[in-house]
Amino acid sequence: MNRAAPSSVLALVLAAATLAPGTALAQSQGAPPDESLFGDNADRGSGDQAWHASGRLTLEGAFLSETDLDPATALDEEARIQPEARIDLTWTPDKDVEVGISVEAGHDLDRRNGTWNGTERLEVRELYLLVDDFLMKDFQLQVGRQDVEDGREWLYDAKLDGVRVAYDHRAWRIEAMWGREQLVSANLLHPRPDRRKVDAWLFHAEYEVTRDWDVAAYVIKQNDLRASNISPLTYGIQSEGRSGALGHWLELALQQGESGSRRLDAWAIDAGLIWYLPLPARPALFAGYARASGGGDAITDRSFRQTGLQDNEDRITGLGNVRYYGEALDPDLSNLEVWTLGLGLRPTRTSSLEVIAHRYRQSVADDNDLRGSPVAAIMNGTSRDVGTEIDIAVSTRLWRRTALEAKLGWFSPGQGFGNNRADAVLGKVRVVMRF
Questions:
Q1: Which of 2.40.160.100, 3.60.15.10, 3.30.590.10, 3.30.10.20 would CATH assign to domain 5-20+52-434?
Q2: What pLDDT sits at residue 24?
Q3: C-alpha to C-alpha distance for 201 and 223, rounded to whole angstroms
Q4: Would you call 333 exposed, middle or buried from its count of C-beta atoms within 10 A (0-12, 13-18, 19+)?
Q5: DSSP state of 168
Q6: Which residues face 127 on adjacent strands?
Q7: Contact 340/324 with Cβ under 8 angstroms?
Q8: Looking at residue 373, what DSSP letter applies?
Q9: What is each CA distance from 2 to 65, 274, 406, in whole angstroms?
Q10: What Å distances lie between residue 277 and 213, 245, 298, 301, 343, CA to CA?
């Protein structure tokens, strides 16, 4: 791949910030709400509102250089081009009954080891039956393939086949669910045997303290039916919100259970503050600290594991999501310490720019790779220094229902990867049209 590509993507990212529509910064009372440009699709309903239809077209391109961080290795870059179309349909034959289906078709082009390979997809993203006031008022029952996610997608953002019961009343939302990823194969064109044989039991209770502040408690039990037997019990609290000029987030988790033949005993924390400044371009400064335990011995595994259902992606100050542990390194929070500093700007009402810096260290020096990261290099086990990363993310509306985001992530490895290591650079561009 062309080594000049990182500079080209940087130019595109910076140019996108200046191409945003010239909407006035001050919002009038008739202005649309401040929401993600990549959120829910538009609705198209019948006259009696018995059904709703929506859809989107997406074109995404991305590349990642130096996946092994070795400047002497050829063909160590990855690229992806992914066009896809999605249709969402819901039918409400009764005021308390909803049937939903979401279907996505795409063609994934992936380049690895210097070769392009294509895969066609026709996936059932969701297929569910939802019953309101099930057995008694304010209770819901949902059966089938359904989307489950928590606020920051730190615990889960996945499509699970299963059963969910919820209590939704005023400020409370309490959910209990059993589910498994792809109990039935998702890709109708290329069905594959289920290799993710992990049952998940989820309990999540959320309370809306104010309109802009939610707190939650949760318990997640995962049962690994494979020989690996990684079966954690994870429980903790979450808080996310804003009060005046200050915003915050908090994830605090404890973990017990089984890790193969060892006992699992681990913990993790992720906390941050956002300061919204009353200045032109609506600047916001934010800082965060995350750490997950690591290490262990022959009896106890102290390495925290996220659920494997998480996405680690959320809006911080912009109109689009960012991978808040780094766009290029993008690790799971496991045996890792992450310091984050960032600046967000709103050049116009329909555009945003975020510049984010990350500093990484292992919690315990370990000669392993970083769990969940596309960077496959192995650490040397003598230094905890993982490295640093700078990310730039731009989101902007091109037309009424068309939005663009462009991202650049530049990871510079630390001493934990040894000497003579190359930087890994990620570039990503995505265009979404909703209808």
A1: 2.40.160.100
A2: 32
A3: 8
A4: buried
A5: E
A6: 101, 145
A7: yes
A8: -
A9: 10, 38, 19
A10: 19, 7, 51, 44, 11
Residue type, 295: G
Handedness of CA 360, 363, 365, 371 (dihedral sign): negative
Q: What is the distance of C-alpha 110 from the center of its chain?
A: 21
Residue in 372, 363, 292 with CA at minimum distance from that of residue 334 = 292
Token readout for 424 is 């890994």
Q: Dig out the tokens for 115 from the structure.
A: 């070769």
Q: Are 343 and 303 in contact (CB under 8 A)?
A: no
Residue 40's pLDDT band, with cuts at 50, 70 and 90, is low
What pLDDT score was predicted for residue 190? 82
Which single residue is written with the structure tokens 């919002």?
A: 27
Beta bridge partners of 341: 287, 357
**Residue 45: what pLDDT?**
53
Give the burial class of 24: count Cβ atoms within 10 A of its Cβ; 0-12 exposed, 13-18 middle, 19 or more buried. Answer: exposed
Cα-trace Rg, the chain: 22
The pair of structure tokens assigned to 145 is: 């393939």
Tell me, what's the pLDDT at 355? Answer: 98
390 - beta bridge partners?
Answer: 357, 410
CB 228 within 8 A of CB 260: yes
Closest CA to 202 of 219, 185, 216: 219
Sequence ranges of the domains in the chain: 5-20+52-434
What's the distance, Cα to Cα, between the start and end of the chain in Å? 35
> Token digits for 431?
């265009």
Bridge partner residues of 286 (DSSP)? 274, 342
Residue 309 burial (C-beta neighbours within 10 Å; 0-12, 13-18, 19+): buried
CA–CA dist 66, 148 (Å, integer):
34
